[in-house]
Design a protein that fits this description.
This is SMC-Scp complex subunit ScpB. It comes from Mucilaginibacter achroorhodeus. There is one protein chain. By secondary structure, this protein is α+β, with helices and mostly antiparallel strands. The chain has two domains: 4-77, Winged helix-like DNA-binding domain superfamily/Winged helix DNA-binding domain (Arc Repressor Mutant, subunit A, Orthogonal Bundle), CATH 1.10.10; 94-178, Winged helix-like DNA-binding domain superfamily/Winged helix DNA-binding domain (Arc Repressor Mutant, subunit A), CATH 1.10.10.10. 48% of the residues lie in helices and 13% in strands. It has nine helices and five strands. The strands form two sheets. The chain has a three-stranded antiparallel beta sheet with strand order 3-5-4. Strand 4 (135-140) and strand 5 (148-152) form a beta hairpin. The model has no long low-confidence stretch (mean pLDDT 87).
């Protein structure tokens, strides 16, 4: 039991997505048949994060989407991105990216709403985004016919490194005077 940090480190390492404090507590309590407090878990995670914060490691513990995950440090992103580009077979088409953006900013949203914004059929794009687990079905609308509502998934949050949707860039952050059309009236 003295090496509780190693067990937590193993859980973080083995988790494909961020692992929450509650999940760590559950696994440890089931394994050791004793109670663990969230403060105890978070103190251990902080010690692990400090250990991996040194320059001896190329990875670090990051808190993403209210969970902990091992990620490559920023100084190694260039070389890792080259590997991912080389291996990438799951590229998103422009249509899928547009559909994903609409869903992210307008969620929960129906397929009809997305199609009205894009002006084209979105069946294929939505199917591909569901397959890649970037979006999820969040429920059904109260509108006639009870259409399915879509929203972003935890995989979306992990992929973009955000904890919640409010961290997405706002239109004012990406727009500029150069992208405006016409002359401004004074």
């Amino acid at each position: 039991m003295d090496n509780i940090e190693q067990y937590i480190e193993a859980l973080i390492f083995a988790s494909e997505q961020g692992i929450r404090t509650e999940e760590i507590m559950y696994c440890l309590q089931a394994s050791f048949e004793r109670d663990f407090s969230s403060d105890e878990i978070e103190a251990s995670v902080a010690a692990i994060a400090k250990k991996y914060g040194s320059n001896d490691f190329a990875i670090e513990v990051a808190k993403i989407n209210n969970g902990y995950q091992f990620l490559t440090k920023k100084s190694y992103h260039t070389v890792v991105s080259l590997l991912q580009i080389q291996r990438s077979k799951k590229k998103l088409s422009q249509a899928a990216l547009e559909t994903l953006a609409i869903i992210a900013y307008k969620q929960p949203v129906t397929k009809t709403d997305v199609e009205q914004i894009r002006g084209v059929n979105c069946d294929y794009s939505i199917q591909k985004l569901l397959e890649k687990e970037l979006i999820a079905i969040t429920g059904k609308s109260d509108a006639i016919g009870k259409p399915i509502l879509y929203g972003t998934s935890n995989m979306f949050m992990d992929y973009f490194g955000i904890n919640n949707i409010s961290e997405l860039p706002q239109l004012k952050d990406v727009s500029s005077e150069e992208s405006s059309i016409g002359e401004q009236a004074e």
